[in-house]
Amino acid sequence: MSTMQKGHTVAVVFLLMLIFAPPSNCSYQNILKFLHVSDIHLDPFYDKSIDKTTRCHAAGSTSNADYEAPYGRIGCDSPTDLLELTLSAMREKGDNAKFIILTGDSTGHGLTDDHGSHTVLESMSLVSSNIHQVFPDIPVFPAFGNNDLPGHYILPNNSAWYRTILSYWAPLILCSECQEHVQKPTTIEALSKTFLDGGYYSVNIADGKMILLILNTMYWNDNRYTDPLVEQIAENQMQWFSNQLQLAKDQGKRVLIMSHIPPGGDPYGYNYFWYPEYIKRYVSLTAGKYHDVVAGQFYAHTHSDDFHLQILDAADEKAEEVSTKSFVLMAPSVSPVYANNPAFRIMSLNTDIQALVDYDQYYLDLVIATEFSNPVWKFDYTFSKKYPSKNKLIDANRIDELNQQLISQTDGTYWKGYIQSRTTNYQPSDYDRLPLYCVMRYVFEEDFAKCHEKFKMQDCATSSPSRVVLDSSICSSPRPSTSAGNTKGHPPVTTKSNTEKGAKTIKKKVRQDFATSTPSRVVLDSSICSFPRPSTSAGNTKGHPPVATKSNTEKGAKTKRRKW
């Protein structure tokens, strides 16, 4: 065969390959990846040989653990080793990520009470420098959590706190070591203007195609103190937020929103995180006037893998069908303090249509890591595969669809997978579907109350497999109590006082098998899996159970009960 004939043959083969090649998925041609991590709760006083009755702190402890836990212990906040392992895994799994969002609570619980506010600053500096060391080449966008303040839920009374934090965060936000061709997310002048006012700011993402708004929702949270300065900043931020959404709309850009404490409520104490007027004003923007501008919202605080809807007319069945809506993706935590495995996500954003399309979640099995001294981060799930749908986007319609799938009368797959994911594959707690379903669906407290009342008339004893019971409290399982200490957001951390007596190691705790609850029986109550129901003990009124301390575990303790 001549050279010319060979050339023609190659050309024909190449042409046939083009003709018969499978069509490319155009929707995945311009996908931007970014990392979402939250609730690191770095504890500089963590001691691997101390158990959780004193939050793994050696000071004042008389209880050594039965085994060492260098990578973290269920019931305690994160040691430095866990922070470093997490960042290393994020670098490895998300090496092509373009930026990182950190949705608050970088520092451990109770640091200001025990050691003063300077310890919070030191921890935030340490977290920031560790992140910058591992990710010097991409911007990182942090938000404030309730533990990142001068005191727990205590907002600064001047700009000094924010100025100090800005010195830690500016190199992350502005990507001080990024290559010259990388577009800067914002300028130090623009950043400082709002950051020094109240710790909120905006940045450009996706090569300027979209905007990320970073809020400080502590100003709208109903556990913060009332003060004229705080009230003014709360109003400033709301006005700024509205203006930013209008500006994005005028520019034809969509917006992502992130912060720590979300609007809406928690399924444990039946309480809502924000002042009602701020919830209404916020949702009127995100799910109302600018629902087509908001491409997604990222929050955390509950340490659970979860989803929230924002529907303006959710309580009106007829109006709900045509009501505009928005949604929130709730991130799991790095800290294992609330009986969960550490986790993070890699988000996928289609920049052509400015929409979220998927995410992958990874977790660290602390039981296995501790037992075998081999901390390996594992793939958890991909959203589109765990919750398959004809809708290929992660948007309000998809989360609405998922909300309904969780109470399916014919298929328990979604519910079982959702519950397992809430604690990122640690031993699931016993959850009622009713409060989880209602909290996910109803962002307004009055709508949640109506949801609760609507379905609690069923009787578990007479319900057949074809009958849906939406309230497990009638099935002889006590509803989570809201005794002093926890009215906002979490089951309590397990301690010696409420775990199996005489247990020697975490590895001996048997994980329940949800496979035993068959899809054909649709009683909406996970108590059929025999998990202990979350109780609510003293020391917490906003979003968390109490972390075990001397004050709430050892008899005769002299310290006061804390709010977490």
What this model shows, in words?
This protein starts with a helix and ends in an 11-residue tail after the last helix. It has helices spanning about 5-20, 80-95, 110-115, 115-135, 160-175, 190-200, 230-250, 275-290, 315-320, 365-370, 385, 395-405, 415-420, 435-440, 445-455, 550-555; strands at about 30-35, 100, 140, 200-205, 210-215, 255-260, 295-300, 305-310, 325-330, 345-350, 355-365, 375-380. It contains 16 helices and twelve strands. The protein is α/β, with parallel strands linked by helices. Strand 5 (about 210-215), helix 7 and strand 6 (about 255-260) form a beta-alpha-beta unit. Helix 5 (about 160-175) packs antiparallel against helix 6 and helix 14 packs antiparallel against helix 15. The strands form two sheets. It has a six-stranded mixed β-sheet with strand order 3-2-1-10-11-12. Strands 4-5-6-7-9-8 form a six-stranded mixed β-sheet, with helices on both faces.
